[in-house]
Structures are given as structure tokens and as C-alpha cells.
Amino acid sequence: MKFENFNAGTWQQQYQYKSFQPIPVNQEWTWEEPTINLLLEQATKALGELNAFSLIVPDVDLFIQMHILKEANQSSKIEGTQTEMDEALMPEEQIKPEKRDDWRENKNYIQAINTAIDELTRLPLSNRLLRETHGILLQGVRGAHKQPGEFRTSQNWIGGSSLSDATFIPAHHDTVQELMSDLEKFWHNDQITVPHLVRIAISHYQFETIHPFLDGNGRIGRLLITLYLVSMGLLSKPSLYLSDFFEKNRASYYDALMRVRTSNDIIHWIKFFLNGVAKTATKGRDTFGQILIVRNEVEREILSLNRLAPSAHEFLKFLYRKPVFTTLEAANATGLTRPTINKLVTKFNELKILREITGYERNRVFVFDRYFKLFLI
After folding, report:
1. For the chain, give me the number of helices (H) and strands (E)?
2. Domain count, the chain
3. Which one is predicted more confidently, 187 or 139?
4. What is the helix (H) or strand (E) element at residue 277, kind and residue range?
5. How high is the pLDDT of residue 58?
6. Which domain range does residue 325 map to?
7. How far apart are CA 364 and CA 348, in angstroms?
8. Does pLDDT of 187 surpass 90?
9. pTM beyond cutoff 0.85
10. Can you state the percent helix, strand and coil of the chain, rounding each to 5?
11. Using CA atoms, how far apart are residues 237 and 170, in angstroms rounded to an integer?
12. How much is the average pLDDT of 26-54?
């Protein structure tokens, strides 16, 4: 299929509405548009630089958890949740009651990402993996009644309050299994010569157009991008997440997807996607560079702690994973005693490494500011 001749699908009459039936994607894809080649080159270069950083940064897994947390926060924010980055790191009892539902959804997403990435070491990217990940995403939260872990068996829609005023109505549920089977074959088809970044751009569009779950399609569809890149060896670590780019360009993101369906303009979507990969990968590379600078600064500063220095190094490993914390969390996670943690917190405050953010005398929360701010940009 040549992008210039692409026809996205057909509108099919159902009982009182029309659903959109996309064409299968497991086929050869070509294009004449030269800008795609340039953007593909830029995105591939940026992705390679990001991956190189993730291979040379010592103890990189300490920092990957913050990338995952940011992805969970930004992807959930696109769907309307209101949890902020610092709140996502706090224990539930520190969260205002009216925000705890959002907080739990965010936590589920973090667990879903971590589990899916871990499963890739044992399973190939598959619909089975996506369904299992979806089950974790919706466990015990507002979408728990919407067939968690299963493809939908009823019609859904996007926008509006019902099928009668929906912005977009995806494929009829009777065709979801067939469409998702075709998509899975596309991921692993080595008989076609489609570059991986173009392949996952098409796959993300197709997944969101099929909308195979009753809830959580946006989050699973965006996670699919990272799972694909890790599964195919383009990333050694799950260090690229596009949700921050999509959230900052939310209207353009939705418009680009919809233009494919309504105007067959897949070229616009591919360009938007590749530009997002290039910008996000470059930003991720720069963040890793800043992490190394902060790490070196703090390592030098804690040399002054003398006998406390070995415990301070253990404490720092905890802070890189959880830069917003309580002393109880720190003690439980590190195995250090509460008195030792309290001494370290006092010393780190004096060195201006930590800052207390509640103003309370008890149940205080501290933040590793210099590091945490790197993920707010």
C-alpha cells in the first residue's frame, strides 16, 4: 500500500449508527513523500542516541522508574486524571480523598507498565500481553466493570455522551478479534520491508482506530509504542515514552489521528509521529545528561558525611527511584534504621539536597528537588 493511495476504511451501517471499519495493515507500505525519509532519519538517530545513554549510565534502572512514572502521569492526564507528579510519588494517605481515584489509576498504570516490560523478557509482543496489561490497568478502579483484560464484546464510541452524538464510532465488536489478529501479525511480519518506526506509527493509529477495549484504549495504545520498541530491540531499556509529547500537543495528536480516518491523510500522521519520536528521544537524551550532572554533584557533596557515607549511598539509590518520600518509606525500602534515615535526612537538608514540602511536624514529606525537577520540564 502506498501512503499516497491510502484509503483508511469504510463506514458501515449498523442498527442506528455507522461504525468505521479500518482496512487491515499487515501488508507492504511504501511512500514517495521525501519528508518522511528525512524525519525517519532524524527520529532513528535521536532514538539511537537515547538508547546509547541508557546503556552507559551507571545503574540506569534506578532512573528508568522515573521515566515510567512520568509516562503514567502524562498518559493518564490525556485521559482526564488530575494526579500531579509529586502526588504520584506520595503514599495514598497523603492524597486528598477527592483525588484518590485518579491516584489509584495512576498507580495501576505504573504497575501495568512495569509488568508488561518484565513480561517481554519471556513473551513476544502480542495481543495476549496487551490484554494482561489492560487487566492490571483497570483492576479495582473506575473502569473495573468494563471487561478488564478482554477485548470488547459491545460497541463503544469516542466523544459525545452516546452513539447518537459520538465524535467517532470504531469498528463493530464482531470484527475486533480479526482486526487485532491482523495487527499482531503486522508486528512480526518479516516478509515486508517496513521500517520499525513507520510500522509502530501505523500500529498506534490502527490500535486507536480499532479501540479494542471498552476503556483504557488511549493508555494501552501509547504504551504499545514503547513495548514495540523494546520488543524489536530498538531500545534496550524502556526509556522513550511519547505521552508527554502527545499531552503537550493534545489537539494536534487527536486531529492527526482523525485526519487519517476522515481524509485518508496517513502521511500527516506519520510525520507527526516521527517528529514526536525525534523530539522526545532528544529530550530524553538531554535528561540523562542532566541526571549524570546531578549525580556527580551529589556524590561529591555526600563525601563530607564520613562514616555516614556508605548509608548515604544506599539512601541515594532510593531517592533516584522515589524522589518524593516519607522517612518511613525510606526505612522500609532501604533496610536502614529509622534513626539512620532521620540522620541522613537532616544532613541532606543541610546540604540542600532535600527539601520538606508539607510544613508539618509529623508525617512530613521530602523532595529531592534537583533531580525531581528534571522530570517536570
Report:
1. 15, 5
2. 2
3. 187
4. helix 266-301
5. 81
6. 288-375
7. 15
8. yes
9. yes
10. 65, 5, 30
11. 33
12. 97
